[in-house]
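Margin note: ligand = zinc ion.
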Amino acid sequence: MVERVRVVRADRGAVLVLPATSAGDGSGPDEGGAAAERVPLDRDGTLPLLDARSHDVPSVGDWLVLADGHARIEPRRTALVRDSAGRTAQTQTLAANVDVVLVAEHLDPDPDLGRVERLLTLAWRSGATPVVVLTKADLVPDPDGMTADVAAVALGVDVHAVSVVRDEGLDPVRALLTPGATLVVVGPSGAGKSTLVNALAGREVMATGGRRADGRGRHTTTHRELVPLSGGAVLIDTPGLRGIGLVADADALATTFADVDALVRSCRFSDCTHEREPGCAVLEALALGDLSERRYDSWRRLEREAAYQERRADARLAAAERARWKRITQDHRRGRGPGAPRP
Ligand SMILES: Nc1nc2c(ncn2[C@@H]2O[C@H](COP(=O)(O)OP(=O)(O)OP(=O)(O)O)[C@@H](O)[C@H]2O)c(=O)[nH]1
Ligand SMILES: [Zn+2]
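Resulting structure:
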């Protein structure tokens, strides 16, 4: 028998899965109360039933196919990936098979434009469509002006200001919850992600933080969790992302910084470093005030980070390749490898 299930939560020791019909595949009416099933994981975090050669670790949003005592992770359509801090650790998949990444940022305290740019790059890289949601609009006198400021750095991205306490501005976000759609909410701790998820779900599904004087939350959410909604969409709430590592991707950077990318293309030298060259269109735009110092710095920082991450990924790849050859050579000596001498 073949069963298709979706990962609701992936803890260290187990994954919680839901059958397809209640996990937002849009294929059936939502029964709302379908119980999640717990599948324990092996010590290395892999599914015990999984094809032994596969070392994929299931992530929230993954589709698993369970058939004849085997579990297989379906290829991910999209994946929100972060660079894990450790030197040896690989990248970490935050959410799989996501259609829309809601980048949540608070209006009070002031939104951090650099963080929005960073999360947008992460979102573009995932393959999903980013949408910015500016929360706590009720706490500021001019939410529209602030929204315009954020929209100016979120090129080609819809930006919505919302107030959950006043139930204002949520309709365009609700419109994204189409049957079968998967949305993930990312943003800093205290941005109001869980509050937003509860408002969109129409019920208290995630615990939210108490108010603090500085407007920040207290890291209330501690795990990622997929929440099936009654309309057939699913929402994934994530804990506040702190110092989120960018995963290198020049395309995603060029999309987030489409304005800078257009300038780069018209620099006189194709290998322009945009630091001192004559005919550098980026420096010219800076001098004319067409490009702000802030955005220029933000772009440079993310570029450097992406380049560093890419080099590190290459080093990991090279190490993995060396390890593979070492194994093959050892197997060969033990007479197990292909082409090994007959005993
Ligand atoms: N005034 C106002 N407060 C809000 C709004 N949305 C959220 N808050 C408050 O902001 C605080 C943080 O909200 P949470 O939803 O817990 O934030 P979070 O982003 O999930 O935080 P973590 O779980 O730590 O990542 C809570 O006290 C909320 O009540 C809003 O629209 N207006
Ligand atoms: Zn240049």
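Helices lie at 113-126, 143-151, 171-174, 193-201, 250-256, 258-265, 281-288, 293-333.
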